[in-house]
Amino acid sequence: MKKVRTRFAPSPTGYMHIGNLRTALYAYLVAKKDEGDFILRIEDTDQNRLVDGATDIIYNTLKECNLKHDEGPDVGGNYGPYIQSERMKAGIYKDYALRLVKNGNAHYCFCKEEDIEIQKQIANAKGESFLYKDPCKHLSLEQAQERVNNGEDYVIRQTINPVGTTTFDDEVYGSITVNNEDLDEMILLKSDGYPTYNFANVVDDHLMEISDVVRGNEYLSSTPKYNLLYEAFGWEKPRYIHCPPVMKNEHEKLSKRNGDASFQDLVVKGYLPEAILNYIALLGWAPSEDKEIYTLEELSKAFDVKRIGTSGAIFDIEKLKWMNGVYLRNMDEDKYYELVKPFIEKNVNPKYNYRDIAKALKDRVQLLTEVEEMVDFFNEVKEYSIDLYNNKKAKSDPKIAKKSLELAINALKDLNDWNNDAIFQTLADVANKNELKNITIMYPVQVALSGKDKTPGGATMISQILGKDETIKRLEKALEKLN
RNA sequence: GGCCUGUUGGUGAAACGGUUAACACAUUGCCCUCUCAAGGCAACAUUCACGGGUUCGAAUCCCGUACAGGUCACCA
Fold first, then answer.
1. Residue A418 burial (CB < 10 Å; 0-12/13-18/19+)?
2. Which chain B nucleotides are covered by protein, judged by CB under 7 A?
3. Please, what is the average pLDDT of chain A?
4. CB A263 within 8 Å of CB A67
5. Complex ipTM
6. Which residues pair with A74 in a beta bridge?
7. pTM of the model
8. How far is A205 from A199, CA to CA, in rounded Å?
9. Helix (H, G, I), strand (E, B) or coil at A75
C-alpha cells in the first residue's frame, strides 16, 4: 500500500483558531495512524491578506501541541514549513497552468474583474444565480497567445465541459455527485502571476504525494473541480476526508474574531495544550471505546476516519474546562507544581510554603488562571461580611462562630507541634469535648483565617500554612469583628 | 436564489433493522466530608426535526417538508 501522507495547509492570515487546529490534528492523526508523514505547507498565495507573524503563530502552535511535521526546508536543524510563495519562484505553477492550456483544460481570460463584478451584481439583484460564462473561452489559442504577447493582462481559467456529472467519494460524507454545468470555471493563475489556492493546492498535493486530503467541509462543493483538475493532468486522485465544522453556537461557525476560540487565547486563560487537543479531537469524532481522556499517541492509535461525524459540533468551553481539570489532577506532582507556581507567586508572600499551597489546590483547580484569586487570602484577609459565618451545614451563625473561635484560640495557643494533623486533632478534641460537630469549629476558623466561605484546603491546612503566630493573630482579629 | 451537506437530551455523542436509546460535560438531589473541590450514588430523551412509505419490526432504509450550515471571489 502507498505510504500515507497528509498535510495541513493553512493560509497565514491571522490567528490559529480551534477549528483550524482540529483540522491539523485530524490530518496528523490520519498520517500517524498508519505511520505516515504529516506535512506543513503555508499557502500564502494571496499577497493582499498576508498577516505579519501569522506563519510563526501557526508554526509555534503546532509545536506547542506536539503536532510535529515530518519534512520541510532546513531551518536551524529543524524542519521548517513549506512556503508556497517560495516554491512559486521556480515558476512551477505557471508551467503547470500552461500545460492545461495546451491540452485544452484551461484557457486564457482577458475579462476585466470589474465587468464580471457588475454582471454578478445584476444577477444577484434579479435573484438569479450567477455562474460566469467566460467569452474568452471561445478564443482560439493563437488569438489568445497574441494578446498575451501584446502585454495584455490575463488570468488562466479552468475549462469545464458543461455536460455530464462529476462524482467523488469522501471518506466522511460518502459519494457526492454534481452536474458539470453547475461548476464554476475557476481562475487557476491570477493576473499577478500567483496561483489561486484552488490550483496551487492541487499541484502541491500532487507534487508532495499527498495521499489523504484532510480539510474542512467548506471545500465539499469545490472538490469536483479539483478532481477535474487531477483528471486533466492525468494524476491519481487523493482520498478525501472532509471534516464537519466546529461551531460557536447553533448558527455560527467558530471565528477568530471573537478571540476566545483561538488556541493562544485559551492557553493564556490557563488551558493546557494537551487538554485542548484532547477535547477538540472529540468534537466531530468519537472513539469506539467508552473513553475520553487520550494522549496524542493514544489518539493516533485509536483514530479512525470512519468515525468522524458529519454534522457541526458546538465548542463547549465548559467541558474543556472540566477536561483541563482532569489533566491537572492527573499530572505528575513536579510538573504540576511548575505550572501553578507562577500563579501562586503573584499573590502569595514567599514566606508561605508554596508546595503546600499547590497541594491544597491540586484537585480544586480547573483553570490555572483561577489560582490567583483562590489564594489571595494568604497575604491578607480582605474585608468580609459576618454573614459568612452563617452556614447551615456547620450549624453556625455569628454568635456560635464567636464561641467556636474562642474555643479554637484557647486550644491552639498551647499547641506547639504545628502541623495539619496535630491542628486537626486539637480542634476535633475541642469539638468533641463541647459536644459539637467538627465542622462547627472548623468552618468559623476557616472563615476567620481567609474571609471566604470557600477555600483550597480546610481550616487546619490553612492554619499549617499560615503558621501559628499568624493563625492566632487572624483568629483574634476575627473575634474582635464579632464583638 | 441554484448547487452541496447536515438534523439523536442544554452540549459532545453511542447505536452498524430487533437494547429499558450507552457514555461524558452541564444541571439537580443524596452520600462522604474541616469549607469548596475530588470521589460515590441517583434523577434528567416514553423518544431520535416533522410528515409519509418500506418492513413482522425503523433513531437506523426510501420519499417529501421544515430548519440549519457550506458554496457560488484574481480568499483560502
1. middle
2. 1-8, 10-15, 22-26, 33-38, 68-76
3. 93
4. no
5. 0.94
6. A79
7. 0.94
8. 10
9. strand
